[in-house]
Design a protein that fits this description.
303 residues, alpha/beta, Nucleotidyltransferase, domain 5, 2 domains, six-stranded mixed sheet, 13 helices, 44% helix
Length: 303
């Protein structure tokens, strides 16, 4: 059985398809396909307050393509979720209506808390030590979600209007950085030893550039070195010489700044990078719901 998640973010739109295998009552979820399309909705929303006609057209075309990909892969259940940019778009009703009419896909707009909760759900799949406290840091184009994990449980979480595309658009208020600092100061007891869990395409790229392998951590010092190294190149040089995607080359520096600031405020020296995110959380949530009561589920579309 295959599940799919569509993550409509501020910097890109992703389709993740995963298959559930049942081995004598034990379930195993395996990634089948990940498709990423660089439709930057946040660039419109954070500067003009709404999604432009051109980007609505791009979104509709992307969603149509995703529909056909799900049909080809024989996906049974799917869920399409939008985050920060769509939450703030003044014309979101028009956008959702167009996508439903022209691509036959219902888009659900997640609140910041719902987004943080879905991202946190991936924690249990990472085989982390229960006696260790963690700060889950997910940096996106429009927002950053923070979740404090202690004794294997979600203690508190918060979403902030602090994202890479938002920073590039000059739409982050100084007070938002202060809110992060105040929240961390209140949430984390003095002297608590925290390990970071970093998710998002930018930290994955930094992890790869650092030559890291699975199960290794990346340190705050190494992220700072990456930031300084990447800053020595122009945007064009990062694209041509470092062969970075254009929509990654410009957001990676503000992303590094966000990670560095949060890690410093929280006293975090090292961070795990599990290469998972919101899409994985959406699928895991669907699967858990289906597993609890398969008979209550119905197909989102007929293949």
């Amino acid at each position: 059985m295959k599940f799919a998640a569509i993550d409509i973010g501020s910097n890109a739109i992703r389709l993740l398809i995963e298959e559930v295998h049942n081995d004598e009552g034990k379930y195993h979820i395996e990634k089948v396909s990940l498709t990423r399309v660089p439709v930057r909705l946040g660039e419109d929303v954070f500067t003009k307050g709404k999604v432009s006609k051109e980007r609505i057209r791009q979104l509709v075309k992307t969603m149509r393509a995703f529909w056909y990909l799900m049909e080809v892969h024989n996906v049974v259940y799917f869920r399409a979720c939008a985050t920060s940019a769509m939450r703030e778009a003044k014309n979101k009703k028009e956008v959702l209506s167009r996508v439903k009419k022209e691509a036959n896909i219902d888009i659900e707009i997640l609140s910041g808390d719902e987004e943080a909760e879905l991202i946190f759900s991936n924690y249990f799949a990472q085989n982390l030590r229960r006696e260790q406290s963690y700060l889950y840091i997910d940096v996106g184009g429009g927002s950053t979600e923070l979740t404090l994990i202690r004794n294997g449980e979600r203690i508190i979480g918060k979403s902030f209007d602090l994202g890479t595309v938002r920073i590039l658009a000059g739409a982050v208020k100084p007070s938002e950085w202060k809110k992060v600092h105040i929240w961390l100061d209140k949430a984390i007891p003095e002297g608590e030893n925290l390990v970071g869990i970093g998710t998002g395409g930018n930290v994955n790229t930094m992890f790869k550039l650092q030559g890291k392998k699975m199960q290794e951590t990346i340190s705050r010092k190494e992220i700072e070195e990456q930031h300084n190294y990447l800053s020595s190149f122009s945007l064009e040089q990062r694209i041509v010489k470092l062969r970075m995607k254009p929509d990654r080359a410009d957001v990676i520096l503000p992303a590094a700044r966000i990670y560095l600031t949060i890690m410093a405020d929280a006293g975090i020296s090292d961070m795990i990078v599990p290469k998972i995110g919101l899409s994985d959380g959406i699928i895991l949530d669907m699967f858990n719901s289906w597993k609890e009561s398969p008979a209550r589920w119905k197909r989102d579309f007929i293949l």
